[in-house]
Structures are given as structure tokens and as C-alpha cells.
Fold this sequence. Notes:
Shape: globular
Number of domains: 1
CATH superfamily: DD-peptidase/beta-lactamase superfamily
CATH topology: Beta-lactamase
Amino acid sequence: MKVFVGVFAAVILFSACSPNNVNVDNSLKKHFDEAGVHGTFAILDNGTNQFTIYNLARYRDSSFLPASTFKIINSLIGLQTGKIVNDSMLINWDGIDRGRSECNGNLTMYEAFRFSCPPWYQELARRIGKDTMQTWIDSLEYGNKTISSIDTFWLDNSLKISPDEQLGLMKRLYFDQLPFHKINQDIVKRAMLFEDNTNYRLSYKTGWGHDEEGKNIAWIVGWLEENRHPYFFVLNIESAEKNVNILDIRMKLLKNILTQLDFLHGKR
């Protein structure tokens, strides 16, 4: 069996890891069927290095536009290069109403990340510049490393990344192992923490776009902590339905899967 490119490359730095650590769980298919989507899900137990995966072929061998999950890397590069001073730095709104009121206004990095506002990050990418961006993408070996236009490449299907690579990236970020200052990785991790209660902490970034055929492609990538123990996950889904509410579907799907796997109760 082919060695996984992203996660297995990252994990092997810390422990012996092979496809023998993988549990293919086809029982998770029902959640995708109920949601009316196709896709893959994987979660890695950091303590045991055990993977639970649905749709191994898609997880391992398919790549998709990262959409707004690239805001993780865009933020890190912006912070590292000084184009973002801190997560309170404002970038002014250009005055164009794009139909999302939460993005209309001068926003900080923290706000733009949490609201997932494309124009803010498109302006940041322009400030970083294509040559600098390409250097970082190459250094990170991020997906296929392809940049087209500097302010659309993560949205227009030129840059693509596999679910496996996304999960590997999450583990490296969690442990401050990406080639960025720790303080910058901490800033991004703080922006990713959306749920924090007595049972668990859930940190993630969502993404949504369309492939070359017009199909919806959506992501949730991140980690779940229960009893101070991290589990890294990736959810990738697609739908050809034009009017599907992919934004609500992806989070409900994630929660349903995690609940079936006995997460979110603080029992782990």
C-alpha cells in the first residue's frame, strides 16, 4: 500500500507509522449518505497513532482546492513576513458589498479569519506578493505548490491539496513544527479555537469552493482535544447540487461522525 504523503511523512518524524495503523470505518458512510454528499473523513489519535478513515482512496489519492482552509497558511506567512503585525491589525474594507454583511467593514486578522472573509485575505496575499508566497508554498511543500493569480490561486483550482496533506499540516501546526515563529503559530491557533467547554476543545478552519465542474467542495480541518489529548481530523465533501446548504451540512456531518466515534463527551 502506498505510503501517505502528508500525514505519514509528518508522523514518521515522531514514531514508527505505517498503513497498519489505519482502521477503515465504512460505518461512517451513512452520515455522508444522509447528508446527500460524497467525501472522506479521517481522524488521528495522537497518543496511539491510530487512524480512523472513511473513504481511504479519496483521503490518500485525491486533491482539491483548499478554499478558505488556506487562510491558515496565508495568516502564517503574513505574520512571519510582517505584512500582519498581529491579529488586531486592521485591513480597510474596499467598500464593495459582496453580500456578506459581516465582511463589510474594516476588519482585524482575527475577525477576518473567524468570519472567513475572502477580500481581506486577497488583499493580504497581494501585500505578500507572488514571489514571496511561492517561496513559502515551496518550502512548506503545500499541495501541488501551484500559484496562478496571487489573489485567487487557492480558490480557482490551480492550488490543490489532499486530505492526507491537510491532516499532516494540522498536526505540525498544533505542535509548532511549521517553519514559522511559535508566536505566529499560536496566533493562528487562537483564531482556530471555536468551541471550548468542560468536555472538549474544538479548533478548526472551514473552506468552501467549486471544482472545475462546478461541484461544491467543502472542508473542515483541525483538531479536537479531550482531557488535554489531541485528535487531528479532516473532513472533505463534495456535492453537485446547486442549492445545497453545504455550509450547514459540513458542520452537522462532522458532529455526527464525532458523536458516533464517542467524542464530544469528555470520555476520551
